[in-house]
Design a protein that fits this description.
Length: 364
């Protein structure tokens, strides 16, 4: 059982996000030597999950790793151009913010035709927060307008508030741990998952108590079967465990609000709702295309025909314009060449030869 959520949960959510927007070409930019293995594990899960979609949906996923220096990060961004328009950045929050700001230095990446997706397990510590992307120090907001921030959804409600207070007191009393202002224990998926494990086990054991034969004990396999492929209503909220025994995480998606210059939770699955939506930076106001009209090279499809037509027009203009004097010179050279070739066939007669030549008997 994987009741704490898995790396695969983040990967599958990201792929469903791509399927929903009809994106299939994905470039994963992975920071080397990050403080957590979360990012490399999610990258691996993305590749595995994408391969399992074979026959249902074709994903073309490629990976590029970068070091935490500007040159390497810009090179990673330039790597994207000829491969995809969807960029998944896997690294701490500060790295992802730096990458978005550097996108201006990679030609063409801030034209609104690219989408940047950041995945974080929680909004704490070095992982950063969505609010860390508020009020960016740039005048070019195109990259931020095409930016999606995926992270663990913190539970809410009166019951959760009371439980957080209890956990804060216990953390202080038992471990002398003090939570920083604005940080709640259940904001972290590890704390919430630990609490959920106990809650989930208690609910399942209580459900089976009525049918258990006294003295028979509880079978671990039987409990696992009872936990799989179903929903649970727990203290901190709803939970779904799939048929493989893995919990499906509740995740939030943040997008940039150009009015407030800040990140906000959006409803990507039903943008027709009245709630906040993504203010895409494309010319159409719609999500970026999976493959640009002119392909990743910029010279495919309709653009190839347009390029050939432009080339023909250019050649014609040269011929009819600046090329005319050159053509006259070529014609003159050709004419002189023909005249010279004719002279080679003329027999020159001297006066002596001329006097011996018979004259025609009839002159017309």
């Amino acid at each position: 059982m994987a009741t704490g959520g898995t790396f695969r949960s983040y990967a599958e959510f990201t792929l469903r996000l791509c399927i929903f927007h009809r994106w299939s070409h994905i470039t994963v930019l992975l920071q080397t030597k990050a403080f957590s293995n979360f990012y490399s594990e999610v990258a691996d899960s993305l590749f595995r999950a994408a391969a399992e979609y074979s026959g249902r949906y074709h994903f073309d996923v490629n990976l590029n790793m970068f070091d935490l220096v500007d040159e390497s990060m810009i090179a990673a961004l330039n790597h994207v151009k000829y491969r995809s328009r969807v960029i998944v950045i896997l690294g701490p929050g500060a790295t992802c913010l730096r990458m978005l700001l550097l996108a201006e230095r990679a030609e063409g990446l801030t034209n609104g035709e690219y989408v940047f997706i950041v995945i974080q397990p929680q909004q704490q510590g070095f992982y950063g927060k969505a609010s860390g992307f508020n009020n960016p120090n740039t005048t070019n907001l195109a990259a931020f307008r095409s930016f999606l921030y995926v992270t663990f959804k913190s539970p809410s409600g009166a019951v959760v508030t009371d439980l957080n207070l209890k956990l804060v007191r216990q953390a202080k009393a038992l471990y002398n741990v003090t939570y920083a202002a604005g940080i709640q224990p259940l904001d972290g998926f590890s704390v919430m998952a630990s609490y959920d494990i106990v809650d989930l086990l208690a609910v399942t054991v209580n459900e089976t108590a009525a049918t258990r034969v006294r003295g028979s004990g509880w079978s671990g396999r039987h409990l696992a079967e009872r936990m799989s492929n179903r929903n649970f209503s727990l203290t901190v909220g709803e939970m779904y465990v799939n048929e493989e025994g893995a919990r499906t995480l509740n995740l939030d998606v943040f997008a940039f609000n150009t009015t407030t210059n800040s990140m906000q939770v959006v409803n990507l699955w039903n943008p027709s709702d009245n709630g906040p939506s993504v203010n895409w930076a494309t010319n159409t106001g719609r999500p970026p295309l999976d493959v640009p009209k002119c392909g990743f090279s910029g010279e495919d499809g309709d653009c190839a025909q347009q390029r050939r037509a432009s080339l023909r027009t250019l050649i014609l203009s040269v011929i009819l314009g600046a090329g005319t004097p050159a053509i006259i010179v070529l014609l003159l050279l050709w004419a002189f060449g023909q005249y010279g070739a004719g002279l080679e066939n003329v027999q020159l007669l001297n006066s002596e030869e001329l006097s011996t030549q018979p004259l025609p008997s009839t002159i017309l």
